[in-house]
Design a protein that fits this description.
The complex is a heterodimer. By secondary structure, chain A is mainly β. Chain A is built from no helices and 22 strands. Classes of the chains: A mainly beta, B alpha/beta. At the A-B interface, strand 5 and strand 10 of A face helix 1 and strand 2 of B.
Chain lengths: 236, 173
């Protein structure tokens, strides 16, 4: 079963400096029917104006993955991490027992466009940690690039999170396709960042999401001339 | 578990006390509090700040990351934790101004039952604790540790736990 969540049905917040579309309830957007999907708690698509951002704030017991689509985002936290992330970079933070961080668009003229994902951890009170991994754009082109999962992968090519969940990024152009087997009892979620993509024959447009259950095989095909970029989640 | 609210109000010129404030906030979060971090505005004149490159650059950065405390923060908070770089025997001008704003709230009975605590990278939190006591706040003492950042974290945590105990005690009455 594939349940599409059209882009415009998502929560909406426009603060001038921040334009946010929220797949699940977040901040002032509250809908009991959309509190999350499996361990997936938040998918926010944010556009942050140059020089603006989120001042110092705290997190606890949450796996937070930030994926920049365009522009750059600076990050500073109570663990002493101080970085700027750009596209084709995985940033994963385990809040665990508690962290305080701030996030800003360091650019003077370019808006940053990003997806921020929160996944509930399988356990509370883990030691806070920060991971940042860059990869070549070709690694997600026409294939699924693992961003984060429960196990260390290769030479630290993807982030490790405290949940039985895998997060992939991919870019598909017209004529490009791939398939992904979902094990019995597993669930999927898909979030399109840009362009159009076909999921088991159903068209997903820019900003659309899809909750996937009781499907064994996901067939994905690019449906936009300029390509489509999306995140795919494999969830317990 | 019931939420408790902790606001960490600090003053920092070049970021050292800011680091302690972050540690105190992390401690409070570890104690399962909701936190707000607030930086006191500079009271020094512009020329003095301009003449110190570290101060000027850090001020610009911190003014993006933190807003100044507002009345609503003190009303929201179960506990106010204060951090100063100036740990001498006098209250700094920045904190004097802050206490004036709190004094107005105290006069309206709006600080009753709230908790106060202080940390410093200087030599003494004496003046801050004295002022906190003067407001009638319930004090949570500093926790001695050779590492001042660790001390701030432990204190933040102790404050969150004290705030929770206090809430439970009030609810039980």
């Amino acid at each position: 079963m594939i349940t599409i969540r059209p882009s415009d049905d998502r929560g909406k917040a426009d603060h001038g400096w921040l334009n946010s579309r929220q797949t699940f309830s977040f901040a002032n957007y509250h809908d009991p029917a959309h509190m999350g999907f499996r361990a997936l708690r938040v998918i926010n698509e944010d556009r942050i104006a140059p020089g603006k951002g989120f001042g110092a704030h705290a997190h606890r017991d949450m796996e937070i993955i930030t994926y920049v689509l365009e522009g750059s985002l600076s990050h500073k936290d109570s663990m002493g991490e101080n970085h700027v992330i750009v596209p084709n970079t995985i940033q994963a933070m385990s809040a665990g027992t508690g962290i305080v961080h701030s996030e800003f668009n360091p650019s003077e003229d370019q808006t940053v466009h990003l997806l921020q994902v929160w996944i509930e951890p399988a356990m509370e009170d883990v030691e806070p940690s920060y991971q940042q991994i860059s990869f070549a754009p070709a690694e997600k082109r026409g294939q699924l690039r693992l961003l984060a999962g429960p196990h260390a992968n290769g030479n630290g090519a993807s982030a490790v999170i405290h949940q039985d969940a895998r997060v992939f990024a991919s870019e598909l152009r017209v004529g490009e396709a791939l398939s992904y087997p979902l094990a019995p009892g597993r669930f999927g979620y898909m979030q399109v960042a840009r362009g159009n993509v076909l999921l088991n024959g159903q068209k997903l447009g820019e900003g659309d999401g899809a909750a996937i259950s009781e499907e064994r095989e996901l067939s994905l095909a690019g449906a936009a001339p300029d390509g489509a970029e999306f995140l795919l989640f494999d969830l317990a | 578990m019931q939420d408790v609210n902790v606001v960490v109000v600090f003053y920092s010129r070049t970021g050292s006390t800011e680091r302690l404030a972050l540690a105190a906030a992390v401690g409070a979060v570890q104690g399962r509090a909701l936190i707000r971090l607030r930086r006191l505005p500079d009271s020094a004149d512009e020329a003095t700040i301009e003449s110190s490159p570290g101060w000027k650059a850090n001020r610009a950065r911190m003014n993006k990351e933190f807003v100044a405390p507002r009345e609503a923060d003190a009303l929201w908070a179960d506990a106010i934790v204060m951090g100063t770089p100036d740990g001498g025997d006098m209250l700094s001008t920045e904190f004097k101004r802050y206490f004036e704003s709190l004094e107005a709230l105290r006069g309206q009975g709006k600080l009753e039952g709230k908790i106060g605590a202080a940390f410093t990278q200087g030599s003494s939190t004496g003046p801050l604790y004295e002022a906190i006591g003067g407001l009638g706040l319930i004090t949570v003492p500093a926790i001695p540790n050779s590492n001042i950042k660790e001390a701030a974290r432990l204190q933040g945590r102790a404050v969150a736990e004290a705030a929770r105990s206090r809430r439970a005690a009030v609810a039980a009455v």
